[in-house]
Amino acid sequence: MTQGPMSIDDLKRMAGTIRCDIIEMTCTAAAGHPGGSLSATDIVTALYFRVMRIDPANPQWPDRDRFILSKGHACPAWYSALAERGYFDKKHLSTLRKLGSMLQGHPDMHKCPGIDMSVGSLGQGISAGLGMALAGKLKKQDYHVWVVVGDGECQEGSVWEAAMAAPKWKLDNFTVIVDRNHLQNDFCVEDVMPVEPLADKWRAFGWHVDAINGHNMEQIVAALEAASKRKGVPTAIVAETIKGKGVSFMENAADWHGKAPCASEADQALCEIRRCICEI
Amino acid sequence: MSRIRQPIQPDPPSKPRLTTSAMIASIASEGQRTKAAPFGHALVALAQERSEIVGMTADLGKYTDLHIFAQAHPDRFYQMGMAEQLLMSAASGMAREGFLPFVTTYAVFAARRTYDFICMAIAEEKLNVKIICALPGLTTGYGPSHQATDDLAIFRAMPNLTIVDPCDALDIEQALPAIAAYNGPVYMRLLRGNVPLVLDEYDYRFELGKARLLRNGTDALIVSTGLMTMRALETAAQLRSDNVDIAVLHVPTIKPLDAESIVKEAARGGRMVIVAENHSVIGGLGEAVAGLLLRSGVAPAFRQIALPDAFLAAGALPTLHDRYGISTKAMEKKIKEWL
Description:
The structure holds 2 protein chains of 2 kinds. By secondary structure, chain A is an alpha/beta fold. Helix content of chain A is 41%, strand content 10%.
């Protein structure tokens, strides 16, 4: 297991490993959400292997950074990152969504080590994260709360209740990363319900906003590390991503929001991802 | 076993005083002894011992008596704005970090607007959040937007949630440390402002999950909760002059129900069982008790005093309580018909 922050190239290789895990997990479970997991993979990788202050051997360490995947259906990416980081044995990854598994269809903080908040109903994780950031200020602890929300999730009104609230308390220990993959359950975000101008919306609510390529590891790490040091204001990072990133037939296809690959599709996907890892 | 120390004085025969503001109408009858803001003061006292208590509200601090806490502990008070979903989820995050949030809003908003947030962010995780909600049942003449006639029905179906419906100022003062000592989510119906003081005349002590027999009686048993216990005691005192002898079992914890006490009392002496609640006839204490008695093989004559299955009118509270059958007068009339 890696100790200390990873290099950019190692992060890229780890993101490839996590993508392979996502394909294998959803294929074995014959269920799950590969598209949104693959779009969030690079962000989650950068957080767990470079940016966040964590101790996998001590998941409840009081001074740890907190992470919430508010778009909880993308949990295969979260579970894989936790397993690869050493929170639990990788053998559990094959139990996704099985009866009695600690890897529920949506993350459960009482069942799985490293899950800081149960999520699943969209628009809730961000407000829970805000509560944890308020608590950090009140306890005078300097942990940072990181929340990943989906772009479709930004249609939930409660996201904007939290967006309005964080600047009130100058929550500079609070960063929201929007996984802007342009697709949601039914179809394209812009057809279902437009969310643009997304960066301007967060800015108008009083956040510092960075717009980045959510698959460019250098940009991701730079934006996250800057957010962790910023004072007096919460940070929103609008990360432009591709749903299904890394698997040709899943990329930009709304079909792969909540559909698992069959064995032959999984084989092809793994080949493509491994080829990319070799080219790093 | 509790007993009456002195009889309750009946309401004066004068016409009920109509308050000008339907929103902040008091449920106290004219001349009744009251205590101001028992929740706010009890929370301040509790917060002096327990530094992990925080208060959070969604623009209803002064109408839920939380403003008293806010003044005493400004550093531990969070005004979340008119954003009830944020209120509940943020409270879950605070509880996850070891704080003990008391969140306040109106019962309609908690039950109807934030159901999913309480369910998924608080109840499923068994997080230690106390949800304290004013205007339960018919305690405002403001109309259906503010009358939580369905909150017990809505919340009873939520796993892990403890539900408390105190009767008066004393009940609230005693319930507060009890629900704070319990580690888990609680929904408490709040009487606020000048709250009647009744139970100090009884040998009463609030115990979470326990019903209390407040008076014995041979002709009928009223099983009641919330402010209807006060009405039940008044009704029982009135009917005593007609030689009708009514027992009153107060059930301040709706969930989990004190099945043992309720079944024991209902099975005693072949008395009619009358469940009285400040809530719709559907899904509240009445149906909870009916189901419990059926499952237990106890089948007394059974009646409900509750609000109708309807969106209720706006108007002056005393008039509405008469019209919908939860005033002492209306209750007395019904029970006389039944017995």
